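As a warm-up, study this chain.
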Amino acid sequence: MDAFAIATNWLGNAPDFAVPYALAALGLIVCERAGVLSLGAEGLMLVGALAGIGAQIAFGQPGVSLILAMLAASAVSVLFAVMTILLRVNQVIAGLALVFFCQGLTSLAGTLFGWTNVAVSSVDAIALWPLSALPLVGRLFNQNIVVYLTLPIFLAVVWFLTRTTAGLRLRAVGENPQAADAAGISVTAWRFAAVLAGSALVGLAGAYISVVSTKLWIAGMTGGRGWIAVGLVIFARWSPWKALAGAVLFGCIEALIPQLAAAGVQLPQYFVLMTPYVVTLGVMVWVAVVQRGGDTSQPGALGEPYVREER
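Now compare it with the structure written out below.
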């Protein structure tokens, strides 16, 4: 395969790899902007992936499948919200427990319902002519509808967080819940809403992998992408646009691996598998060095339970 074909395929496939990272990171930002530290992205992505493929087998409508996957992830996140917001369980422990719970639940349900390795039909690519006819970059404009919708979704969330009263209230309960409560804002209600909405986006990321990208379900198919999304949020300093840029970076790295294999570059299997995580660790170290002694842009009350009687 010549270099031009490799570059064309690489650029064309990068958005498909980047979308799950982008949607999962955006969902985590929504949740954590309200002060709830969410480490359960990997588990919620698995729930979304399983629910999406189950709905696609049952109904055969990708739009319906993606919406039901979002609802399923939100439903499971209620357990996390109750533990962290109402019962004030340590948010790190609750997030890790949610991941293990979802991993076991999805593996069991996928086997019991017979959804494992069942191929489904899904959405087709839509070419944006004449951009799709451009040399080298043309395949960037021949993507599925979810890829095209990712940017509007980011625009909508950024507008909500920065330009609306509701977004201001959500950020207030994450920065200073005592002051928000004194202003008549229900910290509990807004944090619950943020967890449910953010988890829906994380579930959409998982459903994208199973319904749109691979078009089947395999136990543990998210492959650690949820953990990478957690690191991506820290790298982005809780900024949606920086998270989107980071998702594109990780997508390009992941899309490059099969292209190198197609070009005949021999790489050890386990080296290939660990590459995304090595990059994640490198990014985390870089962020730690850059932010040393400086502003981290972290929500002021992130990870801290709020007890109204203590204000």
